[in-house]
Every structure is written in structure tokens, then in C-alpha cells.
Amino acid sequence: MKASKFFKLKARLEEATKVVSDAVKEVSVIVEKTTQEVLKAEEVVEKAVEEVTPIVESVVEEVKQVKKKTVKPNE
């Protein structure tokens, strides 16, 4: 292989390596931003669960009370 051909191939390979490196950097930025958004969403869901839990528990208790009054055991 001639030296000129070798250097052309080397330059093309270096160009490809740069393209891949740039793409990996871009993907890393996207992953980092997405991770931050997921963490924010997780916080929102946790707060919602904290707010909803007492409401659901009180409804369950009310249903239990109604069920006790209306359901009679088999005789």
C-alpha cells in the first residue's frame, strides 16, 4: 500500500472516529437531561401518592363501615 493511500485511509478513519465521538457526546447530554426529567417526574409522582394515600385510606374505611352494616353473615 502506498503511503499516500495509507494517509488518506487514516484521515478517513480519524474523521469517522470524530463523528462517532461527537455523537456519543451528544447522546450523553441527552441521557443526562432525560435522567434529570425522570427524577423530576419521580418527585411529582411521589408527592401525588403522598396526597392521595390518605384520601384512598379514608374511602376504604368508609366502605368497610358500610359493608359491615349492610352485609349479614349466613345463618
Mind explaining what this structure looks like?
This protein has one helix and no strands. With 75 residues, it is mostly helical. The model has no long low-confidence stretch (mean pLDDT 92).
Number of β-strand runs: 0
Query: What does the overall shape look like?
Result: rod-shaped
* Structural class by SSE content: mainly alpha
Q: What is the overall number of helices?
A: 1
- Helix and strand run: H
Give the biggest sheet.
Answer: none
The overall pLDDT average reads 92
Question: Spans with pLDDT under 50 lasting ≥5 residues?
Answer: none
Q: In percent, how much strand structure appears in the residues? A: under 5%
Distance between the termini: 99 Å
Rg calc: 31 Å
The portion of residues assigned to helices is over 70%
Features:
about 80 residues, mainly alpha, 1 helix, rod-shaped
Q: Topology, pairings included?
A:
Blueprint: H1 3-70
Gist of the model:
91% of the residues lie in helices and 0% in strands. The protein has 1 helix and no strands. The termini are far apart.
